[in-house]
Design brief:
The complex is a heterodimer.
Chain A: E1 3-14, E2 40-51, E3 55-59, H1 66-73, E4 81-86, E5 94-95, H2 101-111, E6 112-115, H3 119-122, H4 129-139, H5 145-158, H6 175-187, E7 193-197, H7 205-222, E8 225-230, H8 233-239, E9 242-247, E10 250-256, H9 257-262, H10 267-274
Parallel strand pairs in A: 3-8, 3-9, 6-7, 7-8
Antiparallel strand pairs in A: 1-2, 1-4, 4-5, 9-10
Chain B: E1 8-21, E2 26-39, E3 43-47, H1 54-62, E4 69-75, E5 81-83, H2 89-98, E6 100-103, H3 115-126, H4 130-143, H5 160-172, E7 178-182, H6 190-205, E8 209-213, H7 217-223, E9 226-229
Parallel strand pairs in B: 3-8, 3-9, 6-7, 7-8
Antiparallel strand pairs in B: 1-2, 1-4, 4-5
Chain lengths: 277, 235
């Protein structure tokens, strides 16, 4: 198995930051605010590899930095330090942290997809569901109307959104359906890397189940590499082959998902697993 | 470290497992150091009283538990010898897909999947085409006398005995290199036990090596070439 993503030393600090930020925060100290300068260490020294076709889970409580990692990888925020090499394709590996805005946008449009917890962040509510997918296809360089319309309807079928509602606005859809449109949109360009941020949080159990099944099927059929961020152990157990555990901005433990759940090493992971309902 | 005799698939030396519970500041020794070997086409039985750490040994070999000490050497299909203690996680995942299978007492299955898919899944992982995998899965379900009308539904509502037969079909199907059996034969009825013995023998004759935890001395006698009793010696 080859890595598709190599993340090394990813660090992001909110605030002016000082030399003491990293040493004075983290799981040992139990907080992520630097006592010297008041800055917040959102994540620090995050390193991991994602393999081709793999689903990697990142688990942790809110504020642990897991969504920060996703935002950095999708180049929505800037890292203070560290790199993330995206492999694959003909060109040599690209450091996501070293791209300018235009390059970042192009790479996102062509090779990456993201599904947010809140569909409002991922969808444009002023245009139809089909239009949302079309917009992304247009940005990735596809300009043929008929192709776009066909791909959009195929994706909606694939994600079980009734094609008859293709021309409706996402605001008229149920939460689960909006999430499916988001997934269809993210998939439209056949991304190398798909980032899923708490995609089932807040949905009904039956809707959650169908979305998780869909994600598994997509991985099996298309072999897309994914990073799944969640605070739900059940989601991790179902989807991820390996799992990173984050606390106060740091990775405190990583391993095969069954090992992390059955033989957790870090005090925090033990507590997390013991708290599962 | 590549000093594994050619006839061995797996050699475990002085493997032990302990846990540390942070909240209580407490260390627990789960299994004392154990030595064992598995040969191609043979079954090594792991026996001993409950609580002696038999499952811990099997889980440590499969990396569901992190070993606390000792050595686990494995010879893969290509003949390469590697340490299952230090192999990277991605390699362990690859071995789990292609070569090493772990069968527990309980049927762990993805919810909302048909029984046929659940049994065929290990074959997909081995890279066998879907139609062929389905036919093979059907044959195994027939062998284990699971009624045809149950093949298409999820095992969620099956009886204990039916689930166990699905579990064994899924566990024994295909061509893994090493199967780790964690008591999947507990409380089998006589008839099913006979089917299982025959199926296990058949898979052994194809060169698959097995390490199995068994409580029933009759099964051990019928299947095992070597018995490792965990508070005693090798027989």
């Amino acid at each position: 198995m080859k890595p598709i993503l190599d993340v090394k030393g990813l660090t992001r600090i909110h605030g002016k930051s000082c030399d003491g930020c990293l040493a004075a925060t983290g799981p040992k100290v139990g907080g992520n605010q630097c006592p010297h300068c008041g800055s917040i260490v959102a994540c620090a020294d995050v390193s991991f590899q994602l393999m081709e076709g793999e689903i990697l889970g990142i688990i942790g409580e809110s504020g642990s930095g897991k969504s920060t990692v996703i935002r950095l990888l999708y180049m929505l925020d800037q890292a203070l330090a560290g790199g993330a090499l995206l492999h694959g394709g003909e060109e040599s590996a690209i450091d996501l942290m070293a791209l300018n805005r235009a390059q970042a946008r192009q790479l996102r449009d062509r090779h990456m997809g993201i599904v947010h917890q809140n569909p409002r962040l991922g969808l444009n509510y002023q245009i139809s569901a089909g239009g949302n997918i079309a917009e992304r296809l247009l940005m990735s360089g596809n300009r043929r109307y008929h192709d776009i319309r066909r791909i959009a309807s195929e994706l909606l079928v694939r994600t079980e959104v009734p094609v008859s509602r293709m021309d409706d606005f996402p605001g008229t859809f149920s939460g689960g359906m909006q999430q499916r449109v988001q997934i269809a949109k993210a998939l439209s360009t056949r991304p190398r890397l798909l980032l899923l941020d708490e995609v089932t949080t807040g949905l009904d159990l039956s809707v959650q189940a169908r979305i998780l099944d869909l994600i598994l099927e997509l991985q099996r059929e298309l072999g897309i590499s994914m990073i799944v961020v969640t605070h739900d152990l059940g989601v991790i157990r179902l989807l991820a082959s390996r799992t990173l555990v984050m606390k106060t901005g740091r990775i405190v433990e990583s391993g095969l998902t069954d090992q992390v759940l059955q033989d957790p090493q870090h005090a925090y992971t033990q507590q997390l697993v013991a708290s599962a309902l | 470290m590549n000093d594994l005799p050619l006839d061995l698939l797996l050699r475990v030396r002085q493997l032990r497992k302990s846990f540390f519970l942070h909240e209580r500041g407490l260390g627990i020794d789960s299994s004392r150091p154990v030595d064992l070997e598995v040969r191609a086409g043979e079954l090594t039985a792991l026996t001993g009283p409950s609580g002696v750490g038999k499952s811990s040994v099997v889980k440590a070999i499969y990396r569901t538990y992190l070993p606390s000490g000792g050595e686990i050497l494995y010879r893969d299909t290509a003949g390469r010898v590697e340490s299952l203690v230090t192999a990277p996680e991605s390699r362990i995942l690859e071995l789990r897909r292609r070569e090493i299978r772990y069968v527990t007492q309980f049927l762990h299955f993805l919810p909302r999947r048909s029984t046929l898919d659940i049994v065929a899944e290990p074959l997909w992982q081995e890279g066998i085409p879907a139609a062929e995998a389905e036919a093979e899965a059907r044959a195994w379900l027939h062998r284990f006398k699971l009624p045809e009308n149950l093949h298409g539904v999820s095992p969620a509502t099956f009886s204990g005995g039916e689930k166990q037969r699905v579990n064994l079909a899924r566990g024994l199907i295909g061509s893994p290199r090493l199967i780790l059996l964690d008591e999947p034969t507990a409380s089998l009825d006589k008839h099913t036990a006979a089917i299982v013995i025959e199926a296990v023998r058949e898979q052994l004759s194809r060169g698959i090596g097995m390490l199995g935890i068994f409580h029933d001395p009759e099964l051990v006698a019928a299947l095992a070439t070597t018995e490792i009793c965990m508070n005693g010696e090798s027989i």
